[in-house]
Amino acid sequence: MDSEQRRHDYLQAMGISSWLPRTALPAAKASPDWVNTFLYGDYGSEGFDDLDDAGGHENHHSAHEVEVAHQTTHQLADALQKSPPLPSGHAREQLQAGLNALTTNKPTGVKQENADNATAPQGVPSPAAELAANIEIKPRQHKEEIPTFRLAFWLFEQAIVIDSMPPQGRVGQNLDRHQRLCVNMVRAMGANAELVASPYVLPWPILVGDALNQGRTVASEAVRYKLEKVLADHPPRPIILLGESAAQMVMQREESIDDMRGMVFNYRSDAKVVISHSLTQMLQIPECKKEAWQDLQALLPLAAYVTPADDTASSLS
After folding, report:
1. Whether 292 contacts 298, CB under 8 Å
2. Structural domain total, the chain
3. Residue-range definition of the domain harbouring residue 162
4. 155 and 70 in one domain?
5. Mean pLDDT score of the chain, rounded to an integer?
6. Phi/psi of residue 163, nearest 5 degrees
7. Which residue ranges does the record annotate as region Disordered (predicted)?
8. How far apart are the first and last CA of the chain?
9. Residue 114 lies in a domain
10. What pLDDT is recorded for position 97?
């Protein structure tokens, strides 16, 4: 045993750590008896006589109790090997009982931290709690719902018509049908039904996906920007908004179409606005044509609302 201890100390001084099994390993040769009593860092061996008596006495007791614990472990391993096979649950309970016994017989020389030092004193907030107290929790800001619409712009000599077309469907075929009805409507109001510029269709959303903000506010600003370009290129004239999407986007209101029909609004001081049913509703429901005609009476005659000026034709696109 002494020779093995000196061999370990020699290897330890060279920086080489020894490894010895404390329990029986499966399919391995049994370890000699001295392995169970071998101690790492035996301060009672030669070369450590310069330690004081108090420290040596304490380490002696500690080493003795560690040796007893190691012997108990070896005995427990031998008992498990010699005992007949047990059910898995019983074996687990027996092994746990042995481990609890080892924990109870833990060497008294081992220094443990004081539990009072591990816990923070009462009344003193921890850094994490103090940081959390200074963080202001704000509700998540949800993006505006992206509206879906398709607006058609027609520029006549005495009126601007913006219609809410169906968001789905073929634009060309629907645009022709809607334009014929729009021309007849303007002619019935006693105005020149000749188009001053090519019709323009504004679909929304413009881009697919939600990477960009295309909410209701942005959509309304885009529609009004297009209308401002038309008014900048041509003299102000009455604006006829047909359908709920056109009325809400241009006037930046959230009321339903029924709450705004037949009323005259001021888009600006020199541009009056009247709201009625969409051309799609007039084509599908004949009664809507009669109601639309009653709504449009508020702007008659159209010539009274047109500012005289040289009208230079230009494209809406």
Report:
1. no
2. 2
3. 149-305
4. no
5. 75
6. -115, 145
7. 70-92, 105-125
8. 101
9. no
10. 72
